[in-house]
Design brief:
Elements (H helix, E strand, L loop, with lengths): L10 E5 L3 H11 L6 E5 L8 H4 L4 E2 L3 H5 L4 H11 L6 H21 L5 E2 L2 E2 L1 E2 L9 E2 L6 H18 L3 E4 L2 E9 L2 E9 L7 E4 L2 E4 L20 H8 L4 E2 L4 E8 L9 E2 L2 H5 L3 E4 L18 H17 L6 E4 L1 H7 L3 H5 L1 H9 L9 E10 L2 E3 L11 E3 L4 E2 L12 H14 L12 E3 L6 E2 L2 H11 L6 H13 E2 L5 H22 L23 E4 L15
Parallel strand pairs: 1-2, 1-12, 2-8, 12-20, 19-21, 22-25, 23-24
Antiparallel strand pairs: 3-7, 4-5, 6-7, 9-10, 10-11, 13-19, 13-25, 14-15, 14-18, 16-17, 17-18
Helix pairs in contact: 1-6, 1-13, 4-5, 5-13, 7-16, 14-15, 14-16, 15-16
Length: 541
């Protein structure tokens, strides 16, 4: 690896290989300051939520503006979906920068789908216009990830950065009031714990979907970055806001397979029906199937309960048969090749029969609190992507904004690596207790799913908090360390859900259904952390 050091150059460790981590690492390695970049990921480069993203990436390009769309409309849709609990400046930055980031991806070779010479634009729930770009029909994340992975591998081959796959970060190193690197184990050193020094650590570790029994996330989504930041004394925020995707293919009816059916299918005209054949979404929201995801997920849960109370089968289906009748029997296979291949392999014909679906944990709006440049409250520590929370999504993420967020804020973080003040955020001190009773991942998933799922209530959350406080996990190996991170994030999610005694966005309390005026964001800081924490505004290196 090239060891040149120039004025302004930094030793940078990027943790995570989703869109935010890959993009940040590539941009930092190509920076004229000559940063020394190491990209660390606990699995292979392709093991990320990004790879499985079907729907697409949101952007208002010149083409969209010519058709009547606008950045202002994208801003308004994002704020409305987030229940106006977003950070306005973050949202405006995100939407205004979208076109330029798409141009970069096009230059780098991402093969976005087209209609003739124009980019193909799709419509998804809560969007006021068709502005979703996709690639390979329903494999947008994989198409973007492939290009970014090839780029970082090329940079590594040229000696401009180092790649460390199958390396698990166990803690953040701290000295003199700032982060100074990471401790990790795995390839190439086996189970020997080694230390990797850094001037700046960028956490891009994704979410924590594995907290739940039903999730669209891969096995790697275990809340690692949030747990690391919490232990280091970083402020966390919006932890109660977890988005549930309405349409996971029901594993009970699909040989145990948990596979997400993209919201874009509903954008093309698929309907939600119950076991009696009733299309129920118009009963719950004027936008029906294109209502925000939290609305659709709650409606499905309520309809299942209603059916059960009547003695009917409590099943819900996504019915795309009407699309086939209108657009032809080959349309679904062309527009959604990955979904078509998967459901066909499972023996399901979605051209002629509805698909059984259930809501599933999908995206964590909360995370490590950052400013608009990815800085956390701990000097030397940045966070981007799903692990971070700059306030873009508010209480509920607008569909297909997540890939865009990874790009926009990764670029801003790289530009800010060499200068700037560590932000100071107001936060409530929180102490998490550690128990002595061993628990398994299945124990955690069952408890969190029942207590902090689509609907929550205070009594159940209180019991869950007590149980979580009695549990412990021995982090003897990577699997144990991941479970320990899940236990920490479970405690944090439940604590935040208990503290928010109202319903807003993706957080729904059956005992506090109304949203009181003036309800604000909740932030917490580890009262037991011995690290630099949130004590002062300091200059970055």
């Amino acid at each position: 690896m090239n060891t040149r050091r120039r004025t302004g150059s930094r030793r940078i460790v990027v943790v995570g290989s989703g869109i935010a981590g890959l993009y940040a690492a590539a941009l930092a390695a190509e920076d004229p300051d000559g940063h020394q970049v190491t990209l660390v990921t606990k699995g292979a480069l392709a093991q990320s939520n990004t790879w499985f993203a079907q729907g697409g990436i949101t952007a208002v390009t010149g083409q969209g503006e010519a058709a009547g769309d606008s950045v202002g409309a994208h801003v308004a849709d994002t704020l409305r979906a987030g229940a106006e609990m977003n950070d306005d400046d973050a949202v405006r930055l995100l939407c205004a920068a979208a076109g330029a980031e798409i141009d970069t991806l096009l230059r780098w070779g991402v093969p976005f789908d087209r209609k003739g010479t124009l980019l193909a634009l799709g419509l998804e729930g809560a969007h006021s216009a068709a502005r979703i770009l996709h690639a390979g029909g329903d494999r947008t994340g994989a198409a973007i990830a492939e290009v970014l992975i090839n780029r970082v591998m090329s940079l590594a081959g040229a000696g401009r950065m180092e790649l460390r796959e199958h390396s698990f970060v166990t803690r953040l190193l701290e000295s003199g009031g700032r982060i100074t690197g990471v401790e990790l184990f795995g390839a190439p050193d086996g189970d020997v714990r080694t230390q990797l020094p850094a001037d700046v650590v960028v956490l891009a570790t994704g979410g924590a979907g594995q907290l739940y029994e039903a999730t669209t996330n891969p096995d790697t989504a275990t809340g690692d970055g949030v747990a690391l930041a919490w232990a280091a004394g970083a402020v966390l925020t919006d932890l109660e806001f977890i988005q549930f995707h309405p349409t996971l293919l029901d594993p009970a009816a699909a040989n145990g397979t948990a596979f997400m059916i993209s919201e874009a299918v509903r954008g093309e005209g698929a309907l939600l029906v119950d076991s009696t054949g009733h299309r129920f979404m118009p009963d719950y929201h004027p936008d029906a199937e294109l209502a925000p995801r939290d609305v659709v997920s709650r409606a499905i849960c309520r309809q299942r309960l209603l059916l059960g109370s009547r003695g009917e089968a409590p099943d819900v289906y996504l019915d795309a048969t009407g699309i086939s009748r209108v657009k032809g029997p080959d349309f679904l296979a062309r527009r959604f090749p990955t979904i078509h291949h998967t459901v066909t392999a499972l023996g399901l014909d979605w051209n002629t029969q509805p698909l059984p679906v259930v809501p599933a944990s999908h995206y964590w709006m909360g995370g490590i609190r950052t400013d608009l440049d990815g800085r956390t409250s701990v000097p030397g520590l940045f966070a981007v992507g799903e692990a971070a929370c700059a306030g873009v999504h508010g209480a509920n993420r607008l569909a297909s904004n997540s890939l865009l967020e990874g790009l926009v804020f990764a670029r801003r973080a790289v530009r800010a690596l060499a200068a700037g003040k560590t932000p100071v955020f107001e936060a409530l001190p929180l102490e998490l207790s550690e128990g002595t009773t061993h628990c398994t991942r299945a124990d955690l998933q069952q408890l969190v799913s029942s207590a902090a799922g689509v609907a929550r209530d205070g009594a159940t959350l209180e019991l869950a908090a007590k149980q979580l406080g009695e549990w412990t996990v021995e982090p003897a190996d990577q699997a144990g360390a991941e479970d320990a991170n899940l236990l920490a994030t479970a405690r944090l999610v439940v604590a935040a859900a208990r503290a928010r005694e109202n319903s807003v966005g993706a957080h729904y309390r059956t005992d506090f259904e109304a949203r009181p005026a003036g309800s604000g964001r909740l932030s917490f800081v580890n009262s037991r952390a011995g690290g630099p924490g949130n004590s002062a505004s300091q200059e970055q290196p």
